[in-house]
Amino acid sequence: MKKKIQLIASLLLLLFLVWFFNRNTADDSDRTESSATRPASTIVNSSNFIYTKHARCRMDCRHVSEAEVLQIISAGTINHKKSGAHEKPCPTVAYEGRSDDNQLLRIIVADCEPKDKIVTVIDLETDYKCDCY
């Protein structure tokens, strides 16, 4: 009888340890992905961004200002299907929303250190002919 109690106690301890380590592993993976899906309010300061040459060209072609980019990042929504939480070297986040002049925009932001990069700016309703390489 004593051996059965010890066996049951050992099994319960083992189950607890498996549950505990699985829970902590899941929490760690959430922390890793959270940088790519963090709330926009943490990165809307314009000094936190570097604009790529491609993004500047697309903004110019599509008549999108830096203020509009920041507006979409701060007030828009994240399109998880167009985001790349596991992209290397920097995960990307796709923000979408309407600008003050009613353009439906998607802003792709690479979540890099020390500054995030605006990778591209897309007008989802108008097909502009841009010569950006």
Write the layout of secondary structure elements.
Layout: H1 2-34, E1 49-51, H2 53-61, H3 66-75, E2 77-78, E3 92-98, E4 104-110, E5 116-123
Parallel strand pairs: 1-5
Antiparallel strand pairs: 2-3, 3-4, 4-5
Summarize the structure.
The protein has two domains: 1-34; 39-123, YaeB-like fold (2-Layer Sandwich), CATH 3.30.2310.
Strand content: 15-25%
Question: Mind telling me the CATH class of the largest domain?
Answer: Alpha Beta
Please mark out the parts with pLDDT under 50 across 5 or more consecutive residues, or reply none: 24-43
How are helices and strands ordered from N to C? HEHHEEEE
In helices, the fraction of residues equals 25-40%
Helix/strand/pairing category = alpha+beta
What is the CATH topology of the largest domain? YaeB-like fold
Give the overall shape.
Answer: elongated
Termini Cα gap? 77 Å
Whole-angstrom Rg:
22 Å
Strands, total number: 5
Q: Report the average pLDDT across residues.
A: 79
Strand order of the largest sheet: 1-5-4-3-2
What is the level-2 CATH architecture name of the largest domain? 2-Layer Sandwich
